[in-house]
Hints:
Helix content: under 10%
Order of helices and strands: EEEEEEEEEEE
Oligomer: single chain
Number of strands: 11
Structural class: mainly beta
Amino acid sequence: QVQLVESGxxxxxxxxxxxxxxxxxxxxxxxxxxxxxxQAPGKQRxxxxxxxxxxxxxxxxxxxxxxxxxxxxxxxxxxLQMNNLKPEDTAxxxxxxxxxxxVAYWGQGTxxxxxx
Length: 116
């Protein structure tokens, strides 16, 4: 079992920045991947960004160049730096980790609202 605690959501104006963080109860070096998904009202949950144990990253096209995912193995955390936020980034953001046995765990979700 892995517990995930998220922080950093909130309300921001278009063009602004937010940083999401997620702390895992297990050593991040024991996890195959750590990442962030989001779900907007009426839409399916989508992968936003993911970082693998070896450090490779992938992003959904709509956030490339604006969002950066990073992990700190010393603190067992994964973070998502979000810059130049747009109204279409508004969603509940969920931390996700996957073990080497392909078991996925989810955080409770944190709301990000981009509005003027």
